[in-house]
Design goal:
about 240 residues, three-stranded mixed sheet, about 15% strand, globular
Length: about 240
């Protein structure tokens, strides 16, 4: 089932968009417009019984999904792949999230396979291990990790980026050519495009193909996000 048609996400605040609830007005006491719009969208979904989003396609999005499948073949056996599972917060019904990986009892992980510029920018933060910079410059990614850690009741979160080396493209093209899963057409371009039409890293360059940054989720941010969701829930359930 697609994310859009997933009933466990409809009308609920999800980890991938939860960063919007962190936007406050100028006073710092009330939700800002972005947060209020997000809450209103979830209210509409509840009334309609469906997502307000229409499924769309882009090669960049398809590339990211396909690369996640490739990364799954590279990671350690301690990880459990959970990208097709939506988790519910144990006590707050309007809160759900989908993580890519989990090491049970220890950490959740999310894989980002961005296009070159954003890959470099986000990977620079991962390399620096600067949590405050991640929170400031990559709010969406940071709060997604925090949200999934809270929902799954684990102390740590892990940011992962991936872009293949040029030497890996042949294997990736073969995977795309022989892919027999759902929506085969979405990944056909990976097998057909020239290498310069695909995101890749020169072998032996500055960036590694796989980058990880594991951190303990700050307790203050756990409390802050939980409070924001509870406040948003009150608006969501009001008439």
């Amino acid at each position: 089932m697609s994310i859009i048609g997933n009933p466990e996400r409809i009308g609920r605040f999800t980890s991938s968009e939860i960063w919007k609830l962190m936007q406050m007005d100028r006073s710092g006491n009330d939700f800002g417009q972005k947060a209020l719009t997000y809450i209103d969208e979830k209210k509409i979904e509840t009334r309609m019984g469906r997502s307000i989003t229409i499924e769309s396609y882009s090669q960049a999005m398809a590339w990211g999904i396909f690369m996640e499948m490739y990364v799954f073949s590279m990671i350690g056996v301690e990880y459990i792949i959970t990208s097709n599972t939506t988790d519910m917060h144990p006590s707050i019904n309007c809160w759900s999230g989908s993580k890519d990986l989990i090491v049970e009892g220890h950490k959740v992980s999310d894989i980002k396979c961005y296009q070159p510029k954003k890959f470099a920018q986000y990977t620079d933060v991962i390399i620096s291990r600067d949590l405050e910079k991640m929170k400031k410059d990559f709010k969406e990614e940071y709060w997604q990790l925090v949200s999934n850690a809270i929902i799954n009741q684990v102390p740590n979160a892990e940011a992962i980026t991936f872009m293949p080396y040029e030497s890996e493209l042949e294997e990736i093209r073969d995977m795309a050519e022989n892919y027999d899963g759902p929506d085969q057409w979405k990944y056909r371009f990976i097998a057909e495009k020239d290498k310069d039409g695909l995101p890749y890293l020169p072998d032996g360059g500055y960036y590694k193909n796989l980058n990880k940054f594991e951190f303990e989720v700050p307790k203050d941010d756990i409390e802050l996000l939980t409070d924001r969701v509870k406040q948003a829930q009150q608006i969501l359930t009001s008439k």
